[in-house]
Amino acid sequence: MGTLFEAILVGEDAAWLKDAASQALDEVERLDALLSPYQPGSEIHTLNQEGGEGWVRLDREAFRFVQRSLELARLTEGAFDPAIGALIRCWGFHRGQGALPDGDTVTQALAKSGWHGVEVDEAEASVRFTVPGVQIHPGAIGKGYAVDRAVVILRELGVEAALIHGGTSTVYALGAPPDETAWSIGLCDPENRETRMGVTRLKDQALSTSGDYEQFFEVNGRRYSHLLDPRTGYPAEGMRSATVVAESAADTDALSTAAFVLGEEGARKLLEHFPYMTAVLAAAQAPTTALFGRTATDTLAPQASPCNDEGRNTIDARRLVLLGGFPLTLADELPVG
Amino acid sequence: MNDERNMSRRDLLKQGTVTAAASVAMPMVVARALEAAQDPAGAAEKAAKAAREAAGSPIKIAWIGTGVQGQNDLKQLVKLPGVQIVAIADVYEPSQKKALEIVGPGCQVFSDYRKMLERKDIQGVGIASPLFLHAPMTIDSLNAGKAVYVEKMMAYTVDDAKKMVRTADRTGNILQVGHQRRYSPDYHHALDLVKKGYFGPITHVRAQWNRNGSWRRAVPTGVENINGIAAERFLNWRLYKEYSRGLMAELGSHQIDVTNWFLGAHPTAVVGMGDVSYYKDGRDIADNVQVIFEYPNGAKLTYQSICSNAYDDFSEQFMGPKGTMIVSEAAGKSMMFKEQSAEEFDFAKYSQGKVNVGGKQAILLDAGATTKQDKREKTAGSALASSGVSKNNWALSLEDWVDCIRTKKKPFCDGRVGLSDVVCVVASQEAMEKGKKVMITDEMLKV
After folding, report:
1. pLDDT for the residue numbered B54
2. Residue B64: which residues within 8 A CB-CB, separation 6 or more?
3. Which residue among B75, B101, B214 sits closest to A22, beta carbon to beta carbon?
């Protein structure tokens, strides 16, 4: 997946846990071979090669993955979109870097992008592209799906407490460490990556963060992040980071991207379709304080406070938006690093 | 060489588009895949697909052993047009469930494969069980009138392998062994380069499959016995001699087969050392094996497989006085190095380009390159940028098996190929266990 996956398992028998972790990471490797758009012979690679010609029969797992991706695209009204291979290539983010394309190139790539150009046939587990040039790129959901499947392996084996992440942007907390009620997860402060903007506690939940600080390039002082708005073809603007908590890591992976792209107002609307999700958004500029969602209460109001002992500036709490019952405390409970 | 192989070669020559590749005998699926890679519109592949779809009622397949390997095989099979997976057999319920997720509803589940074989409508049976069970399951299936695809290594003993071949001969039923590299367009291309003499005669082969991990599966908590066997031994059958021949059989057999195939020869002797040197956890299968095979013309194959360091992972390296070729199933790892004294490789201009590896200029191998030579002359290179074959070797290998069932042709990787591989692996184990050079005679290969 071009990214680092790690698993921390807690239990009595270290050798057994090591074997279990290794099985979970084998599962990630298996899914990379299944879903990578870059690996010849993978289901997605084959689909991208042949999907413009006609129906491509996928194995059922890959088919369900594509189907769920399209469902999430529909529900987020295209803020998350798995069919933006052409846009990702046009911006050069598939090579792990980026360069500013000219307007025509973006327009052309946009015309070859979008989930509307993908059709599925459930009975035949087949997919085809109805718009020429459409390519599936699972970048904003694949890591999450791999984490979910790895968790299934761990549960099947009877692992009771584990933390597994893909690229540190998507994490699943299985159970809780001994004598604890949950795993503590620090959220990176997008303004100062050495510090945390808060800590959240998770048990049997997934969390994903989409931030503009991971992969980006700058031209004339303007930042272009890898988080493209599939609707415009340009990097989304207005947010520094979006973090989502839900039960499935595939969902949080896609929904954090969608929330980042949509910004506050759009992200609020996501709650209609995904009432189980909670989110924290860090806006880029406009000082906003907002608190809403199914389980939001006053106790979740962010308390502005510096996140490190040196009192360095961290994100302004007025720029944080909490959606749903996000269990965030703005305090540096964990050692940084 | 059997008729089918000649037939496929003639067909290829007739088609004219893969003339260079056709100088090497290859399964039709490989020829088609190579041709499809040259043909972005996919005319050849579409025609083949249409022919399979038009071939009438689906071929009914059953599968024995639905663990990790069986699941991988099923994933390839379910995508083939004109194939229906009608039954699976496994004694372990979680594996049954995973297989059903892959195959979908309408598939009958058995614990006892012999009961499954009673179904008259089943035409082909795939086998991906632990090694020691390959022979009885294959022989029972062949005797029940089924075509068989048995995963590598073919059998636990040489005698078992011979019995399997004899049963296939006697019943006239198809027996294909799962050495899927034999169905790889990349490997066929690489073999073509060896045969054309680009490296001079191959004097040495170096192959390895190195991994860093215990190779042990964690036993789910609370599970003590499975099918009357201690769960730990059942799930970790690869680690015990009672069921397995370890690294040489599970990994090395692939690469020994490639070497035999590329050299067109069978080794005459083997020496080796192997033991449990790192994972001293009760297993009796070696976690570190080093063997040397000797071939009739003096060429050697040095083979290594270890579980405590993954450097160099898996590849086969063919060395001759003019150059070296590294072949691997891993994408982007196959490449060639010229010896300083040799002339420039002719094929360099048709390869995917030069890369720098360890300070040396290497050439990335491109399976389509041989065919592109013709194409380039005809079409001024218009299709050169298209990528190579996207189908994986597993899919091609199973597709060819299904084609064999449909057309009654003989498999490219048949029981005799499998037997030859078993002889090598069993001899290497004997060499390691007894600490002596073991001779491999023609007698051992006789069915």
Report:
1. 59
2. B70, B88, B89, B90, B113, B116, B125, B126, B127, B128, B129, B137, B141
3. B214
